[in-house]
């Protein structure tokens, strides 16, 4: 089977938040995109999210629209993190573990930003009505996107507990590779669960705009159990198991909407009951949890299907049938993970799981691989604004201009029928929660040994996307060429698969021989003397890569007369997909061809996918610029708390600050957060000069043992800060897992950390001098 190939396609675009697709994980990234972004047609968007409340809410995303709905986003990320915890080997075998961590961190960093204080969590960015009234890619949003939050007075237990679950699950996924980041996530997860439990209510009563899109139908009991179950697994703290049992053991009536046991449906972005059954069974092995998970698994395995074999519920599956089939199989797979490999029942479960995945990736009556970009049969018109290259679901070319690699299309109807159309929301919607369980099941099946390598994919459009030839043709198409004026309707066309959803032209005329009287058909967006920028917008400006011409019109005056061949510009700059974010080409207006302008084409698009070059440092590698306790274990600096509690937490024994917020400064000791006491900020009795970190300056040594934001030395068995003069240099890159540049000072890339260079094919930090 092609499980590994499909998983690679899915993780090509790595998430963030809800209703999108898995490959749509990178296409679904909002904010300032990293330089290693693998989706060439996605660019920075919503970079001022949260400005209405003076907070930074950049990052994350939702679906094919442009609202960031955090509730379903958190649900998707919890499932993704869970699969990373228990099916890590599957991701590693597919060569996707690094991308998986990158995916998770993008979402977790966003949630950290959303958790602005202990009892305050932002749960949505964007207004559903405003957004659904506009069909534009996120890079071109020109309407307001307000931010909404839950607080102690306007609670949302379901949202807070689900976000907690996602962060705690992710902390387990990061525990081995980045324990410091894992600790940060666990701290937020504990606080958010406390918030969910202490101030109870459904989030859609506080964030009312969400009610029309992601209403919390199942209440919040399922999320309270789900969140506690994750905290119990991550910490082993029995108090969290007690919280699970408090709801688990309550004898709710069959018609009580808060009833927790006996779920008759699959998990979803709203309903977490069956996920909690499986998680508790996996964590404890206790019979009451295993029995409940087994009962539910039996129901899912023996549920009705389409004639072709896809799990199908008449009420649920009419909108996103592939999603629900994957969700039904996901909890079965998690239970199977805890079972003996030779168990006959386990083998039955794995057979069911494999049947669902086989169906989704092409073994179905429609002969459709529902993963976008995975096969020539894959859907080509999924419901997604950015990929469409159009101004409406029912406008523009019938196929999307851009390929949403890895997105899982909604799926077939009850009779295995499927219609690939952008306005077919029920069958062709895409979303993060559509992909989440499906992606995990691929890792599960790879881990089970079912992956068989595919032959090399050579069909047009296979991943990775290839750089089209600069095949652009210009024809002036003169309609009149008199002594004093000329007019025409210049034709522009592209071939070799070079698609431009819209385009712009930079045209410079010689005012001595030509005067622009009028231009129409394309909009003049810039005019500076004899320089003009002419743009044609979506739909009516689509260049299809097949030679179909688009045109604009002009009237030029010729004050000195002359032939057209003498006075018309010989070249023009054409921007494929707009001037702001498109690729520039120098086009010869005599029809003899074009070449790239200001950039170098590679084999793939972007080039680093194929040429072996190193993309800019990924966010997954630079988790923090702070020094970690693991790197400086010899310190003897002691804190002297004046009470047993610091901000409601245990007081730190040392003064090493890992994180600061409005409450105060925090440290990490024994894997948990502690408050930095006031004594750490008091001047030493001996008036010894100290650095702001609380460590003394070195008295004699100048030997640098370790470098982060300062240079560290060791004196008398303890760490000290080496003072720097104006002429000295500091290197910050080592704290982020990179080497300092030793021979180069050429800046190749700059981010918030500093300047980066390249030595021996690897990124290095350029010292600050």
| Total number of domains | 4
**Count the helices. How many?**
18
Structural class: alpha+beta
**How many β-strands, per DSSP?**
28
> For the report, how would you describe the main beta sheet?
6 strands, antiparallel
Helix content: 25-40%
Radius of gyration from CA coordinates: 29 Å
CATH architecture of the largest domain: Alpha/alpha barrel
Write up this protein.
It contains 18 helices and 28 strands. By secondary structure, the chain is an alpha+beta fold. The chain folds into 4 domains: 14-448, Glycosyltransferase (Alpha/alpha barrel); 472-596, Immunoglobulin-like (Sandwich); 639-682, Cellulose docking domain, dockering (Endoglucanase, Chain: A, Alpha-Beta Complex), CATH 3.90.1220.10; 733-765, Endoglucanase, Chain: A (Alpha-Beta Complex). The strands form 8 sheets. It has a 6-stranded antiparallel sheet with strand order 10-11-8-14-15-16, with no helix packed on it. A 4-stranded antiparallel sheet has the order 5-6-13-9, with no helix packed on it. It has a 4-stranded mixed sheet with strand order 25-28-27-26, with no helix packed on it. It is globular. It starts with a helix and ends with a strand. Residues 13-26 and 616-644 have low confidence and may be disordered.
